[in-house]
Each structure stands twice: as C-alpha cells, then as structure tokens.
Amino acid sequence: MSSQRRKAFTIEEKGAIICRLENGESNSCLAKEFGVGHSTISMIFKNKNRIKESFNSNVLKPKRLRKSRQENVDQALIQWFKNMRNKGIPISGPMLHEKANGFAARFGILDFNCSASWISRFKVRHNIVAGKIVGESSSVDQNSTTNWLISVWPNLRRQFFDDEIFNADETGLFYKLMPDKTLKFKGENCSGGKLSKDRITVMVTANMSGTEKKKLLFIGKSQKPRCFKGVKSLPVDYVNNRKAWMTSELFEKWLRDWDCDLVKKKKKILLLVDNCPAHPNVTDLKSITLAFLPPNTTSVLQPMDQGIIRSLKMNFRKNLVLKLINCLDANENHSSTKVTVLDAILMVNDAWNKMSQSTIHNCFKHAGFIESHNGLPIQISEHEFDKEDDIPLSLWSRNLNSDSLAAPEMWEDYVDIDSGLLTSEEPTDENIVQNISAKEQLESDGEEEVEEAPLPTAEEALKAAELLSRFVHSNIENDNLTIAMSSIHNSIRDCFYNKMKKQKQTKITDYLQ
C-alpha cells in the first residue's frame, strides 16, 4: 500500500487555519479542505502560540510570506472586499473565490486558479479574519443625528481636547468657472462628460477649535499638469485620479501619511469623516482615531458642510473674479485670463489661509459638536459667520456691462454652483479594474491646451519686487507687512545675484575651453 505524501504547510497557511479555528470553523471541515488528517489540524492549533510568534517574527515573515503573482487580481479583490465591508455586507470564502475568478477574467488572466489555499493566503496578506462583518445600516431614521450627538459623541469627545478633534471632507470645484457661465454648469454633478475636465476635488481639514488648518489636498486629473513646469514646491498636497475624484486608495495613503507625522510629533487626534465609499475603515493607525458620522446625516452633522467649505469657495471666487478683472483692465492678452490648476491651487490656498478661527469654530458649533452647560447643542445665529459681500461680482458686472450679474441671487448661485459635485464614485467591478489598469499607464495632461506664459526672469522678478516694496512703504502703514516685504525683496535679490554669478562662471569656462 502506497503511503500518503505528507502535506507541508507554509507559515501563512498555518496562520490562516488557526484564525479559522478560533472563529468557529470545525476541525473536520478544515481537514477535508486541505486534504489532511484531523490530527494534523489539531497539532497546528496546539502549537498556535509558537506559530503566531513565528508568523509575526521579523526574521521569518520576509522569507515565507510572498506577494501574489496575480497582483492585479489581489488589488482588485481587496478593494472590492473593503467596499463591501464598509457597507456592512458579510463576505464568505465562496464569495471571495467567485469574485477573484471574475476579476481574473476581466484582467485577461486565463491561467488563474483560485484555490482554497490562494484565498487563505489572501486573507493572511490582508489580515482578514473569517466571520460576519458588522456594518452600519443603510436606512437612517429622522432622529439619527440627535441620537448620535447624545449617545455616541459624548464618549468620543471626552477622550480629546478641542484642538485634537478634526473633521475632513471633500468638495468638488469648477476652478475655471466665471459668473456669466453659471447657468451652463448649474445642476452638473460631473460624473463624466465634457464639463468634468473643468473640475478638481479638494480635501478640507481643520480642528474644532479652529487653531489648526491642515494643508489642503488637491485631486486633479493630470499627474503632471503643464502649469507645474518650473514650480519647485506647492503650498498644498497634490495627487491625481483619472476623474479627479477621491478614492479609497488616495484616502488611505493621505491618512497613513498624516498618522506618521502625528507619531513623530507624539500627538493623538480624533478624525470625523462621512461614510462615503472612498473612506474605508483604515485600521492599525497609531495616532488617529477614525470615527464615521452616521449615513445620510452629513448635510446637518458635518462641520465642513455648515459653512467652512462655502466660505472657502466664496473667497476663492472673489480672488478669481478680481484676478481676471485686473487682466481685463490691463488689456492683457487672452492667454493671461486662462485659469490653470496652479492658479486655482494658489487662490484656494490663499482663501484657506484667510479663513478665520471663529468661522471654523462656529461651524462646529452649528453642527452641534459643542454643548451648552445643560448638555444640549448650542444654536448659533447667522451673524456669527464671516460676512460676505458682492463687490467682486459688481465689478465683474461693470466690466461686462450687465446689471443682471450684480443681483444678490446671482452671487449666491455662483458661490454654490458646484456644491452638488460628486467627489467619489460608487465602486463597481468595472471601475475597480479600470482604476488598477490606469495605474500602469502614465497619464499625460488632463488640462485644456493653454498658451503658456513665459516664466519671469530673475531680473524681472527683482524689478517687480522693488516696485512692490516702494508701493508698500509709501501707501501701507503696517510693520509686519514691511518686514515681510523686505524679506521677500532680499530673497529675490539673492536669487538674482546667484544666477548672475553662475552665468559669469559659465562664460569664463567657455572662454578657457
């Protein structure tokens, strides 16, 4: 009688077996699945402490754990799994098996074999434990906001100071839009089509006290917009996506990068976000406690939606209108009035820097996050927000000789025109495959062809700095501004002299040759 060949388990397979046993699966089922005797499974479980220690060891882990050879299938499957988990849908092994084969077919991988051991290794790679996944209900009653503020929020808040409580939210932005084109864009959600190339997404994040405004995250379509040519640094973080939308991968990277920075600063925070598909429940964060707002309540419960984002857009659009009016008044050529992603970044960042601490704090109040002495949310009146005016729109109307554009409702429409823009997509199998495939291609430029204005020379910059410095000294009495202007002037002058030295050295070298 031929003896049965002994099966050799890898360390990850042993780890998966232990996890499944601990979560209620029977010894006999696992023995049958892996084609071994009951005693083999029992021996693995008996040695679980030693196996877990080896599995977590820095020595064994790199040697025995290996990447999936079908990485696209692996990436697509984990994205799909996270999307289902965020919806509260329990995922079984057969469901993973079926989905993996489906993704392999979509990627054109004909020799893919989704075995039980492949699924086990997949679970180990991504720390997935068998069992049901408990998620949020898709239906929310009318009292969900109040219930959350009374039953959930107090427990979260008592663990953190106001400076340590943050809210983050994305907003879509038509960065090229002028007031006279408002009707064309009204009601557009930008899920695709011609208008989608004129939008970007901005992630806005601040703490409850209003004392810390995190650097803005911009999501554009192009990996390297032409307008970035010659730019050494940006005042914001910039990433790209083929639809200029937030994705779960971009969100997780942004979150983990922030977590690393906080670890270095030895600071812990609470971050409140909505539960959209692009916000996965990222685990094992060291300094960030991630909490999700209840579904279908963000319009009233999310602080960013209570006036912070609107104030940001209002001031950006003032900057935008005034910039283009100045170009028209100066009779500059048509290319000077074109708005690039870089223009939008600089103007939105300027608006963000000018956002007052009181505006941010009041929006957290308005959302009900700051209680009165009796424990009830504070109600605030509209006058506590920053005042807005329609001066830029009046100037725009004057330049176009159109009184209708100066109407208050026109300014309201202009400020709110992109409030309904989509900032993420509902993941489908097709979208997941497209996004992963797109990573293998270098996206060129999503911007419209714009005649590039030549970069100013060091000599031109120095002359401009001298002119601006004279203007500040003769028209504005502000010591801080004078000091800042002097610092800028000196920096540009140093840059000019350094370039002059390099040019002289080059000429001498050329002569000696």
Automatic annotation (TrEMBL):
It comes from the Eukaryota. GO terms for molecular function: DNA binding. InterPro entries: CenT-Element_Derived (IPR050863), DDE_SF_endonuclease_dom (IPR004875), HTH_CenpB_DNA-bd_dom (IPR006600), HTH_Psq (IPR007889). It is found in: Nucleus. The keyword DNA-binding applies. GO terms for cellular component: nucleus. Residues 61-132 form the HTH CENPB-type domain. Keywords: DNA-binding, Nucleus. Residues 27-47 bind DNA. It comes from Parnassius apollo. Residues 1-51 form the HTH psq-type domain. This is (apollo) hypothetical protein.
